[in-house]
Amino acid sequence: MAFILYSLLQAALLVVNAIAVLHEERFLRRIGWGTDQGIGGFGEDPGIKGQLMNLIRSVRTVMRVPLIGVNTVTIVLLLLFG
């Protein structure tokens, strides 16, 4: 059970790392998800695209420093316990 939980946490960490390294000019703007694309006006509910753009921007902003620590702990655990 512990191995499955650790594998799930490691997979979630990899997904958050993948979101955190997305570069806006190189990748997101090419597929039409840059900051210059309108996500709606005032008072309108943002669509799925707008919500995903906000999620990506939030993860990149908030999780940058904690990811360094979590990645370091994960690497040390992998080196110690294989």
UniProtKB/TrEMBL annotation:
The keyword Transmembrane applies. Keywords: Membrane, Protein transport, Signal, Transmembrane, Transmembrane helix, Transport. It comes from the Eukaryota. It is found in: Membrane. The chain crosses the membrane at residues 62-81. Coiled coil: none annotated. Its main location: membrane. The keyword Protein transport applies. Pfam families: Yos1. One of its GO terms (cellular component) is endoplasmic reticulum membrane. GO terms for biological process: endoplasmic reticulum to Golgi vesicle-mediated transport; protein transport. Residues 1-18 form the signal peptide. Regulator of endoplasmic reticulum secretion that acts as a key determinant of brain size. Required for secretion of extracellular matrix proteins. Required for correct brain development by depositing sufficient extracellular matrix proteins for tissue integrity and the proliferation of neural progenitors. Acts as a regulator of the unfolded protein response (UPR). Belongs to the YOS1 family. This is Immediate early response 3-interacting protein 1. It comes from Eublepharis macularius. The lineage of its organism: Eukaryota, Metazoa, Chordata, Craniata, Vertebrata. The gene is LOC129332526.
